[in-house]
C-alpha cells in the first residue's frame, strides 16, 4: 500500500508539471515589460497560467509579477529577478535562468528538466521539482529545502529529482537534502557543509553513481544517505555525522 501511495503521488506530480498548454506564446516581451512597469506589490502583473514559451525575458524584474502556473519552457530569463515569488506549478523545462535571482522562492510541482540555472541564486527556497539533467553549476543553493511541507503528509513523501544534474561548484551549505534524488549527479567541488541528508520518512539523499570528487561534506548529517557506486576521490567528511558504511574510512579525509 505504501508503494502504491507513493506511485499515485508521483503520478499526480507528473500530471501537474505537464498540464500546461502547447500553444504559442500569448504575449510578446514588450507586452510583458509594459505589464511589469505598471505593477506593484498590491497590483502584481497578471501572468498566471500565461503561455510565455520561447520568449526572451532576460534581465527583467518579476518581483511584482504573478507567475503561478505560467508556461516558461525554453524561455530566456537569464539574470532576471524572481526573488520571493511563488513559482508553483510553472513549467520551466529547458528554461534559461543563468545568473537569475530565485532566492526565497517557492518552486513546487515544477518541471525544470535540462534547465540552465548556472550561477543562479536559489538560497532559502523550497524546491520540489523534477530537475533531471539541469545545469546548477556554481549556483547558490544554501539553505534550500528540497522537500514538500511535512504538514502535508502525502506531499511530504515526494522527492526533488536531480538525476544526472550538474551541481559542480554549487554551494549547498546547510541545505535540506533528505529526500533529494541525486543519482549520477555531478557534484565536483560542491560545498555540502552542514547539509542534512537524513529523511525520517524514506531513505536519505540518494547519490548512487554520483561524482563527488573533492566535494566537502564537513559536518553534514549523512544518516541513511546512499553513496553506492559514487566517486569519492578527494571528498571531505570532517565531522560528518552517521557516515554510512559504504563510505570507506580512506575516503573520509
TrEMBL record:
UniProt xrefs under InterPro entries: 5peptide_repeat (IPR001646), Pentapeptide-BTB/POZ_domain (IPR051082)
Name under which the protein is recorded: Pentapeptide repeat-containing protein
Amino acid at each position: 500500500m505504501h508503494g502504491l501511495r507513493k506511485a499515485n503521488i508521483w503520478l499526480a506530480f507528473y500530471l501537474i508539471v505537464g498540464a500546461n498548454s502547447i500553444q504559442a506564446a500569448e504575449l510578446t516581451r514588450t507586452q510583458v515589460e509594459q505589464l511589469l512597469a505598471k505593477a506593484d506589490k498590491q497590483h502584481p502583473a497578471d501572468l498566471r497560467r500565461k503561455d510565455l514559451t520561447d520568449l526572451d525575458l532576460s534581465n527583467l524584474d518579476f518581483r511584482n509579477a504573478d507567475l503561478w502556473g505560467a508556461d516558461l519552457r525554453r524561455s530566456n530569463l537569464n539574470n532576471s529577478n524572481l526573488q520571493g515569488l511563488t513559482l508553483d506549478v510553472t513549467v520551466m523545462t529547458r528554461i534559461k535562468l543563468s545568473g537569475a535571482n530565485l532566492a526565497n522562492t517557492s518552486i513546487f510541482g515544477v518541471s525544470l528538466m535540462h534547465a540552465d540555472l548556472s550561477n543562479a541564486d536559489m538560497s532559502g527556497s523550497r524546491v520540489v521539482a523534477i530537475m533531471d539533467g539541469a545545469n546548477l553549476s556554481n549556483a547558490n543553493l544554501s539553505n534550500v529545502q528540497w522537500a514538500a511541507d511535512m504538514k502535508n503528509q502525502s506531499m511530504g513523501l515526494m522527492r526533488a529529482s536531480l538525476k544526472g544534474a550538474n551541481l559542480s561548484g554549487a554551494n549547498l551549505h546547510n541545505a535540506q537534502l533528505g529526500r533529494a534524488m541525486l543519482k549520477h549527479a555531478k557534484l565536483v567541488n560542491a560545498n555540502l557543509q552542514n547539509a542534512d541528508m537524513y529523511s525520517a520518512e524514506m531513505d536519505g539523499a540518494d547519490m548512487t553513481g554520483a561524482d563527488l570528487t573533492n566535494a566537502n561534506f564537513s559536518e553534514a548529517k549523512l544518516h541513511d544517505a546512499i553513496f553506492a557506486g559514487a566517486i569519492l576521490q578527494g571528498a571531505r567528511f570532517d565531522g560528518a555525522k552517521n557516515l554510512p558504511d559504504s563510505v570507506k574510512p580512506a575516503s573520509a579525509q
